[in-house]
Amino acid sequence: MFSDLPTRIKQCARDAGFDLCGIAPVRDFAELNVFPAWIADSKHGEMKYMEARDETGELKRASLDRVAPWARSVIICAINYNTAHPYSTQPQKNEDASRGWISRYAWSHEDYHEAVLRRLKQLEDKLRGLIEATGYWVPGTRYLRSYVDTGPLIERVYAKYAGIGWIGKNTCIINQQLGSWLFLGVILTSLDLAEDELTADVPAPDRCGTCTRCITACPTQAIIAPGELDARLCISYLTIEKRGEIPGQLRSGMGRHVFGCDICQDVCPWNRKAPVTSVVEFEPREGLVNPALDWLAEMQPEEFRAVFRGSPIRRAKLSGLRRNAVIAMGNSGDKKFLPTLKELCEDSDSMVAEHARWALAALGQNSAFP
Ligand code: B12
Ligand code: SF4
Ligand code: SF4
After folding, report:
1. What is the whole-number distance in angstroms between the Cα of residue 208 and the centre of ligand 3?
2. Model confidence over 259-274: pLDDT tens digits?
3. N or C terminus: which one in the chain shows less Cβ crowding within 10 Å?
4. What's the mean pLDDT when you consider all of the chain?
5. CA 221 – ligand 3 centroid, Å
6. Cα separation of 255 and 243, whole Å?
């Protein structure tokens, strides 16, 4: 009944603006078994939502059977967000020590959650139409559910088995043609669409080979084994998800990163010739590529709301972003920040003040200045 549906779905995904689309069956893939041990070892840090359990106490994310027992297939869509700007590891970026780094994914005019979800909904509508045409659709029944990031599933594992790419040693999904600057979007469906999808090319073969660039380049040694990340050490986690104080021993490794980190993707040979996206919503907002550190460290609530309205950067909250910028100032080696940091030692946000004292010390000056 559905023999040509997978092909038509992939065409609809292209029409909706996705660069890639594949379909994975719902199975207990071997990679999913890694997850419970990862949680048991607390490698997720303070990301409590990763620990969500069902009524029997099992981790929801470890198996789709627990959260969507009706789901038979997972449609995975991917969209390229690479814009024509330098990588954080390129010299153009490193020349000015008074500037920091925001991750490529967070520069965008529109939050990727919304940009991707809008396209997924468009695809979902088309798909509903296609299913209705088969006579299989029963109004009121839930056959489809879309997620971007927030679904209780480990998207990259399904992306692998949908043929989107392989899971690199940096844990990212890498596509041979497009590289890894990809956002993933997911549609769960009760339709058995993936029967014949696991062919010779799916899952995509692992093309990391003997390369270990990402592991070597990670400044905080967060990639503890090929494909395995200790999120507690990852700059992306520290700058986006971690609330409160950043552990002292990790601060210097954060360099001038103020939101997210791209290093393990910037050094990846598969991103060397990554094509540039045509999605205008992913073009950077003014001032976010290589932002001035003192601008961020001294930002006030009103400006934060105005600059980051509809941006994923809101997730760090003003306090977190200022904390990150202060750490980056400490790591900059730029003495011009001394007066600002001295003022910030008295900041009404005690967390920012504590990190400012650390930054002063890092710049070689004690906060007890004359
Ligand atoms: C939590 C989270 C994070 C956390 C933890 C990341 C992590 N690696 O787990 C933090 C905040 C650090 C993070 C950072 C980033 N994230 Co994030 N994140 C997520 C989220 C919400 C869940 C990921 C998760 O379940 N992790 C749990 C771990 C255990 O799973 P995993 O790392 O994917 O590992 C699997 C495999 O590697 C494999 N595996 C691991 N070890 C081993 C060992 C063996 C032997 C085997 C067989 C398998 C295996 O099995 C694991 C699953 O059990 C997903 C969205 C989603 N719902 O899936 C986005 C997601 C993974 N993130 C994404 C992005 C873009 C990023 C950043 C690039 C953002 C940035 N620039 O700062 C960085 C990349 C850092 C990195 N190297 O991963 C994209 C990835 C797109 C892509 N091309 O891969 C996703 C899919 C969001 C999206 N919808 O687009 N993220
Ligand atoms: S995102 Fe940065 S800190 Fe995290 S694993 Fe990659 S290089 Fe390391
Ligand atoms: S840098 Fe090398 S090892 Fe790391 S993900 Fe890319 S190809 Fe794989």
Report:
1. 5
2. 999 999 999 999 999 9
3. C
4. 93
5. 15
6. 18
If one residue of 234, 242, 254, 267 were mutated to test the ligand 2 pocket, choosing by the most ligand atoms within 8 A of its CB, it would be: 234
Q: Report the C-alpha gap between 340 and 220 in whole angstroms.
A: 27
Give residue 176's identity as a one-letter amino acid code. Answer: Q
User: Does residue 222's CB lie within 6 angstroms of at least one atom of ligand 2?
Assistant: yes
Q: Are the beta carbons of 173 and 182 closer than 8 angstroms?
A: yes
Query: For a substitution probing ligand 1, which of 50, 67, 171, 265 has the most ligand atoms within 8 Å of its CB?
Result: 171
Q: Which residue, chain included where needed, has tokens 């969500």?
A: 52
Rg (CA), the chain: 22
Listed in sequence order, the residues at least 6 apart from 308 whose beta carbon sits closer than 8 Å to its beta carbon are: 314
The model's pLDDT over 217-232, given as tens digits with 9 standing for 90+, comes to 999 999 999 999 999 9
Beta bridge partners of 228: 225
- Cβ–ligand 3 distance for 168 under 6 Å, the answer yes
**Residue 244, SS3?**
coil
Q: Among 60, 74, 59, which Cα is nearest to 27's?
A: 74
Q: How far is the CA of 245 from the centre of ligand 3 (A)?
A: 31
Q: Which residues are the active-site residues?
A: 149
Helix, strand and coil in the chain, % to nearest 5: 45, 15, 45
For residue 252, the tally of other CB atoms under 10 A from its CB is 14
The neighbour count for residue 204, using CB atoms within 10 Å, is: 20
**Sequential DSSP letters for 121-154:** HHHHHHHHHHHHHHT---TT---EEEESS-SSS-
Q: Which of 173, 178, 214, 263 to mutate to test the pocket of ligand 3 (most atoms within 8 A of CB)?
A: 214
Helix (H, G, I), strand (E, B) or coil at 20: strand
Q: Which two tokens stand for residue 259?
A: 């939101």
Of 190, 184, 151, whose CA–CA distance to 167 is shortest? 184
CA of 236 to the centre of ligand 1 (A): 11
Residue 331 backbone phi and psi in degrees, to 5: -85, -5
Residue 295's nearest CA partner among 269, 328, 267 is: 328
* Residue 226 CB less than 6 A away from ligand 3: no
In this predicted model, what pLDDT tens digit does every residue of 75-86 receive, in sequence order?
Answer: 999 999 999 999
Band the pLDDT of 35: cuts 50, 70, 90.
Answer: very high
